[in-house]
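Regression test case RT-17, inverse folding.

Input:
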């Protein structure tokens, strides 16, 4: 296989570009900063694969030509070992032959003949009818129902052809130059594309040469019509066109720390760089300024990093109020919990311990405890940035303990106004009468779906079982428990 061309964008760009460059990938369409840091020659080659930030910046998305995208994904997994990952169960914009098995309210349910996966096509067809469909949205685990379309999409280097959009011309949101748009529209009208294909110009068209762009449109059109010619003889479940690879890597604090170290090999980097930038736009300028000083005085990296950390801690305490962002591994979505106020911070040499108070305003039931929640009840939330758990101590408004909920999650990351962690689904709940492990089945589902590797899940369950033992041994004295009581779990020799 020829060298794969990868475009890398976002806050992890320097570190990931360094990893991939060292593994023999070409870094294409690189930013000026990346070119300078990796000493790259100017190479405006269209990318096979793009790596970019997730919307919540807690990791990256890898998208591109199927084999090449998969290779980039596997390389990054091998190099940085993120514990939580997602890969679309079907190729994104893959074209597959299926069979309609149900029709209801103008929607056809299509059996795709692949791992028992069905899809939804918003067209009124007939049961038993065979249909060729495009996977129009990535099917990320644990979802089992694909979103389908008959607007097939075929990808070239500079262009995407969209079936059923004859005569239409679209542009990537990243193409903003009006002169370039006019030129691409002219090419679109001059090139006579056979069939019902519309044209969408990809962002790479902004760096392509005219003859390369025209040749790519010509070749993609020929390939697209070749794909159409295979429809009739295709068998049910056959992937006629593989479309694009679509994968996600979720980064927790230790992965971000490792990326800090990779980045520091080619550019001055404060410890916590990726944590600060992924959680807070407000800290970006301060991080950049700190690294500018390290550029001038590299021997002071450690001292500057520690000073920045102290400043951030001071700002956390000064701001007081914090939003709590909980990312479930089964959904990869940010859920905001009842916010709180920081009431205590203990900054240690290798960890920071926080206590946050959350006061509840509405009636309800405390999850997992089956205990009534009343207005004025509160939670004393204790955690360390070093350990993968959060201790929630729930009290009535008059200070009587109602129960304890121990959340098992990635070590929490904190910046002014935000606490964020990745939730591992399994938890432990305790009252004076009972201690129980909750949602073990959800963690098992994440393993079965390939979201979290079995070895990592085994470590999580071991932590959960040890936490259960501690809570069970103290269920008559739960009010005395502190987050420090759970550190013994991590000090034991394996």
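Golden output:
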């Amino acid at each position: 296989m020829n060298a794969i061309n990868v475009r890398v964008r976002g806050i992890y760009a320097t570190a990931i570009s360094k990893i991939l460059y060292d593994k023999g990938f070409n870094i294409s369409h690189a930013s000026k900063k990346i070119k300078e840091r990796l000493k790259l020659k100017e190479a405006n080659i269209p990318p096979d694969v793009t790596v970019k930030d997730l919307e919540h910046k807690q990791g990256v998305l890898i998208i591109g030509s199927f084999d090449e995208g998969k290779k980039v994904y596997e390389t990054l997994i091998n190099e940085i070992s993120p514990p939580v990952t997602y890969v679309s169960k079907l190729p994104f914009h893959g074209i597959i032959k299926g069979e309609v098995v149900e029709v209801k309210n103008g929607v056809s349910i299509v059996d795709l003949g692949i791992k028992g996966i069905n899809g939804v096509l918003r067209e009124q067809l007939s049961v038993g009818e065979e249909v060729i469909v495009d996977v129009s949205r990535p099917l990320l685990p644990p979802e089992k129902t694909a979103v389908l379309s008959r607007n097939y999409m075929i990808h070239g280097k500079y262009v995407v052809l969209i079936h059923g959009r004859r005569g239409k011309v679209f542009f990537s949101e990243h193409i903003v130059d009006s002169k370039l748009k006019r030129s691409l529209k002219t090419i679109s009208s001059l090139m006579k594309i056979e069939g019902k294909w519309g044209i969408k110009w990809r962002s790479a068209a902004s760096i392509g040469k005219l003859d390369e762009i025209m040749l790519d449109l010509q070749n993609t059109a020929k390939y697209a019509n070749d794909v159409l010619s295979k429809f009739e003889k295709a068998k049910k479940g056959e992937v006629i066109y593989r479309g694009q690879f679509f994968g996600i890597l979720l980064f927790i604090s230790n992965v971000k720390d490792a990326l800090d170290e990779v980045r520091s090999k080619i550019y001055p980097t404060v410890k916590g760089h990726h944590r600060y930038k992924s959680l807070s736009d407000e800290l970006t300028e301060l991080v950049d300024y700190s690294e500018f000083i390290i550029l001038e005085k590299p021997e002071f990296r450690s001292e500057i990093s520690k000073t920045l950390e102290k400043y951030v801690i001071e700002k956390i305490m000064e701001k007081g109020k914090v939003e709590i962002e909980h990312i479930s591994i089964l959904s990869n979505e940010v859920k905001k919990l009842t916010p709180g106020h920081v009431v205590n911070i203990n900054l240690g040499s290798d960890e920071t311990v926080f206590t946050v108070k959350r006061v509840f305003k509405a009636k309800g039931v405390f999850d997992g405890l089956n205990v009534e929640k009343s207005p004025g009840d509160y939670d004393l939330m204790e955690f360390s940035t070093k350990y993968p758990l959060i201790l929630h101590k729930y009290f009535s408004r008059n200070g009587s303990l109602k129960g304890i909920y121990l959340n098992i999650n990635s070590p929490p990351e904190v910046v002014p106004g935000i606490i964020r962690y990745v939730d591992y689904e399994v938890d432990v709940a305790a009252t004076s009468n009972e201690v129980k492990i909750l949602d073990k089945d959800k963690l098992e589902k994440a393993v079965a779906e390939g979201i979290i590797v079995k070895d990592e899940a085994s470590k999580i369950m071991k932590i959960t079982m040890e936490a259960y033992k501690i809570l069970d041994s103290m269920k008559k004295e739960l009010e005395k428990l502190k987050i420090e009581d759970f550190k013994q779990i991590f000090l034991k020799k394996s």
